[in-house]
Specification:
Number of helices: 5
CATH architecture: 3-Layer(aba) Sandwich
Distance between the termini: 38 Å
CATH class: Alpha Beta
Number of domains: 1
CATH superfamily: Translation initiation factor eif-2b, domain 2
Order of helices and strands: EHEHEHHEHE
Strand content: 15-25%
Protein name: DUF2493 domain-containing protein
Largest sheet: 5 strands, parallel
Strand order of the largest sheet: 3-2-1-4-5
Number of strands: 5
Helix content: 40-55%
InterPro entries: YAcAr
Structural class: alpha/beta
Radius of gyration: 15 Å
Organism: Streptomyces bathyalis
Length: 138
């Protein structure tokens, strides 16, 4: 099997800065190739908006393999996003790119502003698993 680096991309569904994500993914691909890998695979949560959508579009337009991991709300209910994030981290990655907006949930009772919950949680899980994490915030 070809040596490819797994790049886990996670972030806020409200993130709109395509250029920052594109630059981060280009840099990850360049670094992987410089280290002798054939390229990268972009691992994401398959959310139809925000970071996941931008990363998926970038991979498609740059002929880069991707591994979508949609949340299964039918099976896991309201915890589906968290279960999916734990699964993605558990699959392993060489690098985790995190793009976080402030929490925009009307249901959240924590004092604002603070970072969006899912992406922050995924970054923490990745760090605990020894995955290198690079983070951008708005």
């Amino acid at each position: 099997m070809a040596d490819v680096r797994r790049v886990l991309v996670t972030g806020s569904s409200t993130w709109a800065d395509q250029q920052t994500i594109a630059e981060a993914l280009l840099e990850a691909r360049r670094a992987a190739i410089q280290d002798g890998a054939e390229g990268i695979v972009v691992v994401h949560g398959a959310c139809p908006t925000g970071v996941d959508k931008i990363a998926a579009d970038w991979a498609e337009h740059n002929d880069v393999a991707q591994e979508p991991n949609p949340a299964d709300y039918g099976t896991h209910g309201p915890n589906a996003g968290s279960v999916r994030n734990q699964h993605m981290v558990g699959l392993g990655a060489d690098l985790c790119l995190v793009f976080i907006d402030n929490c925009a949930s009307a249901l959240c009772r924590r004092p604002k502003p603070h970072e969006s919950h899912g992406a922050h949680h995924t970054a923490d899980l990745a760090r605990r698993d020894g995955i290198a994490v690079r983070k951008w915030t708005t």
